[in-house]
Write a structure and sequence with these properties.
Elements (H helix, E strand, L loop, with lengths): L6 E10 L2 E11 L4 E5 L6 H9 L6 E6 L2 E2 L10 E4 L11 H11 L4 H14 L15 H13 L5 E5 L7 H18 L2 E6 L2 H7 L2 E6 L2 E6 L1 H6 L4 H6 L4 E11 L2 E5 L5 E6 L4 E6 L5 E3 L10 E11 L6 E6 L6 E4 L14 E6 L4 E5 L1
Parallel strand pairs: 3-8, 3-9, 6-7, 7-8, 13-20
Antiparallel strand pairs: 1-2, 1-4, 4-5, 9-10, 11-12, 11-14, 12-13, 14-20, 15-19, 16-17, 16-19, 17-18
């Protein structure tokens, strides 16, 4: 019977001495899914990936691929291939030889390996590149060779360890889309690790946010962004304004948080005595006239302290009465505030729904 999952991680722990780099992690990845593990450096994501690949062994727990336990199965016998940040291409071989290498290692005849490598290069948009030297390729082309070399082996699972980390920003943006499309074309299961949240948000079907060896939340990009389960997820995924204060009495279903200045903000969630509140820059409404903010429960006045120009992603930092940190808000692309300058007075406001409150 075919397994309904391609990968199952069951209560996996990895200890180095007394330190648990991976601490009782469980998750499953469905066939054809693009699953990302997102977290800061040192959170344990690379250790987890190395255990799936077979380069490290779990202290306890089980790793199953299509229902078969991989404990004790050496790395070269697992139906898994890994693409590293360094890409690890062989510089002395041509592009075609690089892609055919794994097939010839498996005893496929040279002619068939070359033919399959050629077809695979065509599928990743490198038709006719077989004879070229790897050293003559651009970063993005090398990236595709590394992926072709991996996919030609038809692995159940492709593991990608920060594969876009070494590319410049423009190329990274392009490769994000390309990787997502390639993965869709091949319908191969991808497990991807990254510390870059936009990479994870753009490409993944589901994301696990990892922190200090544990998963804080697993969900779709949309769920993590709009309904973070913990303060860590709220602050790590996407830009956000973070406020700290004391939970005051809740009214009409909202919870009030008193900031150190005495200013009160209202949000949704649960706060203990100490509360953390988060509001996204795009949820902050701006107005020159406070009346146009209507009856928003959170309304404050401030002054623009910085204009962070980034085209359509431009934002403002606003020194706001009662707030320790400037409030970040998205700069409108049309209307009276488009050309707003540093020092200009401005009113800010947001709904209670837009503000997530957690017990600190």
């Amino acid at each position: 019977m075919a397994s309904s999952t391609d990968l199952d991680i069951v209560n996996v722990t990895k200890r180095f001495g007394s330190h648990a780099a991976v601490d009782d992690v469980s998750f499953s990845v469905a066939p054809g899914e693009f699953f990302s593990i997102l977290g800061p450096s040192g959170c344990g994501k690379t250790t987890l990936m190395r255990m799936i690949a077979g380069f490290e062994h779990p202290t306890s727990g089980d790793i199953r691929i299509r229902g078969k336990s991989m404990i004790g199965v050496p790395a070269n016998k697992r139906p898994v291939n890994m693409v590293f940040q360094s890409l690890a291409l062989f510089p002395m071989m041509t592009v075609g030889e690089n892609v055919a290498y794994g097939l010839t290692c498996r005893g496929v005849s040279r002619a068939e390996a070359e033919e399959r490598a050629g077809r695979m290069l065509e599928r990743v948009g490198l038709k006719g590149f077989g004879e070229r030297r790897v050293t003559a390729l651009s970063g993005g082309q090398r990236q595709r060779v590394a992926i072709a070399r991996c996919l030609v082996l038809e692995p159940t699972l492709v593991l990608l360890d920060e594969p876009l980390g070494a590319l410049d920003l423009k190329l990274r943006e392009h490769m994000k889309i390309e990787l997502k499309q390639l993965q869709g074309t091949f319908n191969t299961t991808f497990a991807y690790i990254t510390h870059d949240q936009s990479e994870a948000l753009v490409m993944s079907d589901r994301i696990a946010v990892m922190n200090q060896g544990k998963f804080e939340q697993v969900g779709s990009p949309r769920e993590l962004y709009h309904n973070p389960a913990t303060p860590f997820v709220a602050s790590f995924v996407g830009e956000t304004n973070r406020l700290q204060g004391e939970a005051a009495a809740a009214s009409n279903g909202a919870i009030a948080v008193r900031l150190p200045s005495g200013a009160i903000v209202q949000g949704q969630g649960s706060g203990a005595a100490q509360a953390l509140a988060f509001v996204r820059p795009e949820a902050v409404a701006l107005a020159q006239d406070p009346a146009s903010l209507g009856n928003l429960p959170n309304r404050f006045e401030g002054r623009v302290s910085a204009v962070l120009f980034d085209g359509a992603a431009s934002s403002l930092l606003i020194d706001t009465t009662g707030f320790e940190q400037p409030v970040r808000a998205v700069l409108p692309q049309a209307g009276p505030l488009v050309g707003i300058q540093v020092g200009a007075p401005v009113h800010v406001g947001w709904t209670a729904d837009a503000m997530k409150v957690f017990a600190a």
